[in-house]
Specification:
Chain A: This is Amino acid ABC transporter permease. Chain A: Belongs to the binding-protein-dependent transport system permease family. HisMQ subfamily. Chain A: Its main location: membrane. The structure holds 2 protein chains of 2 kinds. By secondary structure, chain A is mainly α. Helix content of chain A is about 75%, strand content about 0%. The longest helix of chain A is centred in the last third of the chain and has 34 residues, at about 325-360. Chain B is globular. Mean pLDDT of chain B is about 85; it is low at about 385-390. Classes of the chains: A mainly alpha, B mainly alpha. At the A-B interface, helix 2, helix 3, helix 9, helix 10 and helix 14 of A face helix 2, helix 4, helix 5, helix 12 and helix 13 of B.
Chain lengths: ~350, ~400
């Protein structure tokens, strides 16, 4: 406390920091060389990049204004923002995807707060996920909107969150089966998990898109988004099962044995004793997986679903605003980056927080 | 508990099968029934569409072109040959991707740990940006970049030997002429025989193990011998601008180049993190102990730190190689004819969706098994090194 006020001590501290930096940048001949090289690289790239991004950029106006300018065309983002966020959703019903994004954001914030980690959270998730889907479809109020017109940021967030939520119960069952002493179920679980983890996600999506309609009885065909969502869910379930299995392995045997000695049955032990500890142990891995799902959900663009990335690509295909791919990709890249980066920061914070609570 | 008496095999099976034998059996039967129903539905759908189930279609003419292929392929060739061309493309991209990603990733990981703040910070942001944006977005970006290169006459020409143009990336290649396979095999055999007999002559007993590096060294030596005495010629083929095109060297098409760059950039960020965490997982005491024994920094790294770090690094590296192999299937989004892309076209053209997807699944599972098997062999060597008494 005192040293912060003492001018001499403060001076010493600054000197220490200064010397650390000096050493870090120019400590050895090699270090100096690297510093010079990196600075040269930055001088070579950063100014022209900044000029393109900001100084020469067109902020408002039409495509013609952009064409006459050498910088980035942010007017394009302004004109196409609605399309990138909601894609083909009927414009007069924009409040629905907006509300869905809002609901999702609040759901994620609530989920991220350790104070709310109770069983009510499970009910909340089930409720909100069903509500969001019905809201988008227009089951509750207003005109119905077919899934082929859903799109943009709302769709990306929706399929990621619904995929994660629906994969959870499946993954828990798979992880329990894989660790059980029942040979038949264990083999089935291993077969499913290893097969799904062994093939690319795009293959699973093709199965959902091309094969599933052939496998179902004639005249019965769920719509494309539902099929893609099921494919994504099963894909996530296999990876999630492995994460949960790691968590189950981390719970000491004594916990289940003690509960069993107290007369708990299998499902009670799993639900009340083992799972809460197992899931808590793998929270950072769960957050990482959630980031992976958000990033991988872009693959549905390949099978023609209008997610955020596909919407951005198609925004730049508009004849009026043709060819502003760079701006479009940078914009959605920033959206993905800010979501994923804040999630990974949150995961780091959570790890520290949980460690502090434990000790 | 299942029946205590009975024949040995049955007993062993029942104890493996475990609790609730009837319920498990019911689940199995239920799943089989679902699969059977789906299968018969599929066969009915195929009959309705006039398609014959089975792999016979692989012998029919494909009638579609493939952008690039390692084997000779024409649209009049069969679906089977098209699939093979796609598989070879996938293997080519996966192999070159893994090698390059390792080189770039390990360099980045070491750079991240270097004492230089600027370099470490730069690498840190590279990793953050790459790992927090979708791979598909990155591939779209690289695809746009490689297609935006100028025409061959105005090609970017860094270092004078690499050409970046809208026809792709041309790099120098090594061209060997007049080297017959029999000469190579013969000289490798001679070199191995010579090495073994020399070892026996010197030590008086046969050597037990040459080790992988010894095998590689001797094989290379065999190549050199075959080269020197087989009358072969080698020259470096540098690409050059002739007329309106760039000839010579090794030409990577824009699609291949975009996919390769995208995959390498993406995986190298992961590998950089793996290498960093692996090296940091070695306790600081190991550095201090080695330093107090008077070892030089290079030797500390090579003899003390890396053998321990590799135990953490190798399993993670394996999964990142597997990821790269699977991610190469995103080629379909940027127009590179890999296995998935070719078989997707095949499915659309022939209607044999089930068979095409089965080939995809089996191929990727086999590729995965192969990569895992190789890496596990290497991992066993790493694991047993150091702490086992000899």
């Amino acid at each position: 406390m005192n040293s912060a006020v003492d001018p001499l001590a403060r001076k010493m501290k600054w000197r220490q920091i200064w010397q650390k930096w000096l050493y870090g940048l120019f400590g050895t001949p090699l270090n100096t060389l690297i510093t010079v090289f990196v600075v040269a690289l930055l001088f070579w790239t950063v100014p022209s990049l900044l000029r393109w991004l900001f100084l020469d950029a067109t902020w408002t106006g039409s495509a013609k204004d952009c064409a006459s300018n050498t910088g980035a065309c942010w007017a394009f983002i302004g004109a196409k923002l609605r399309f990138i966020l909601f894609a083909l959703y009927p414009p007069e019903l924009d409040w629905r995807p907006t509300l869905v994004i809002g609901l999702l954001a609040s759901l994620l914030v609530i989920t991220g707060t350790p104070k709310f980690w109770t069983r009510h959270l499970v009910y909340l998730w089930i409720g909100v996920v069903i509500l969001m889907w019905m809201l988008m479809a227009g089951t509750l109020v207003g005109p119905k909107v077919p899934t082929s017109r859903w799109g943009g940021l709302a769709l990306t967030l929706l399929i990621s969150v619904v995929g994660f939520a629906c994969a959870f119960p499946i993954a828990i069952l798979l992880a329990l089966a894989r660790r059980s002493k029942m040979g038949g179920l264990r083999t089935l679980s291993i077969l499913f998990i290893e097969t799904v983890r062994g093939v690319p996600m795009i293959a699973i999506l093709y199965v959902a898109m091309l094969l599933v309609p052939m496998m179902l009885p004639a005249g019965f065909s769920p719509d494309a988004l539902v099929r893609a969502q099921i494919g994504l869910t099963l894909f996530v379930a296999a990876y999630l099962a492995e994460v949960i299995r790691a968590g189950l392995q981390s719970v000491p045997h004594g916990q289940a044995e003690a509960a069993s000695a107290l007369g708990f049955g299998y499902w009670h032990i799993v639900r009340l004793i083992v799972l809460p500890q197992a899931l808590r142990a793998v929270i950072p891995a769960l957050v990482n997986l959630a980031i992976g799902i958000l990033l991988n959900s872009t693959l549905v663009a390949v099978i023609g679903i209008f997610d955020l990335l596909n919407a951005a690509k198609n925004a730049a295909n508009d004849p009026v605003w043709l060819g502003f791919y760079d701006e479009s990709y940078i914009f959605v890249g920033l959206i993905y980056f800010s979501l994923c980066y804040s999630a990974s920061r949150y995961s780091l914070w959570l790890e520290r927080h949980l460690r502090a609570v434990k000790s | 508990m299942p029946g205590p008496k009975g024949s040995g095999i049955f007993n062993a099976f029942m104890s493996w099968w475990g609790h609730y034998p009837v319920t498990q059996f019911a689940v199995l039967i239920g799943l089989l029934a679902i699969f059977w129903a789906m299968g018969s539905n599929t066969v009915q759908t195929m009959h309705r569409l006039g398609i014959t189930p089975g792999f016979g279609f692989l012998h029919q003419s494909a009638n579609f072109a493939i952008g690039e292929s390692l084997i000779a392929y024409a649209p009049s060739d069969t679906f089977g040959r098209a699939a093979l061309a796609g598989l070879l493309n996938t293997i080519a991209i996966a192999l070159s991707g893994c090698v390059l990603a390792t080189v770039v990733g390990v360099s980045l990981g070491i750079a991240r740990l270097s004492g230089n703040f600027l370099l470490a910070g730069l690498v840190r942001w590279y990793v953050e940006v790459v790992r927090n944006t979708p791979l598909l977005l990155q591939l779209f970006f690289w695809s746009a970049v490689t297609h935006a290169f100028p025409a061959p006459r105005q090609a970017f020409n860094p270092f004078g030997v690499i050409f970046l143009s809208n026809r792709g990336i041309s790099v120098p290649s090594l061209r060997v002429e007049g080297l017959s396979i029999s000469a190579v095999v013969l000289s490798i055999l001679i070199v191995f025989a010579a090495a073994l007999s020399l070892a026996r002559y010197r030590t008086g007993k046969p050597i037990e193990r040459i080790g992988p590096w010894g095998v590689v060294f001797l094989a290379l030596l065999g190549f050199v011998v075959a080269f020197l005495f087989g009358g072969a010629q080698a020259n470096i083929d540098v690409p050059a601008l002739r007329g309106f095109n760039i000839t010579g060297g090794l030409n990577l098409t824009p699609e291949f180049a975009a996919l390769l760059i995208g995959l390498v950039v993406n995986s190298s960020a992961t590998i950089a993190e793996i290498v960093r965490s692996g090296i940091q997982s070695v306790p600081a005491g190991q550095w201090e102990a080695a330093r107090s024994l008077g070892l030089q920094p290079g030797k500390i790294m090579r003899l003390v730190i890396l053998p321990q770090a590799l135990r953490v690094i190798i399993p993670l590296m394996t999964s990142s190689y597997l990821d790269l192999t699977k991610n190469s299937s995103l080629a379909v989004a940027i127009g590179f004819p890999d296995l998935v892309s070719v078989l997707n076209t095949t499915a659309n053209q022939s209607g044999q969706v089930l068979e095409a997807l089965a080939i995809i699944v089996v191929s990727y599972l086999t590729l995965n098994l192969a990569v895992s098997a190789i890496m596990n062999r290497y991992n066993q060597r790493i694991e047993s090194r150091g702490f086992l008494p000899r």
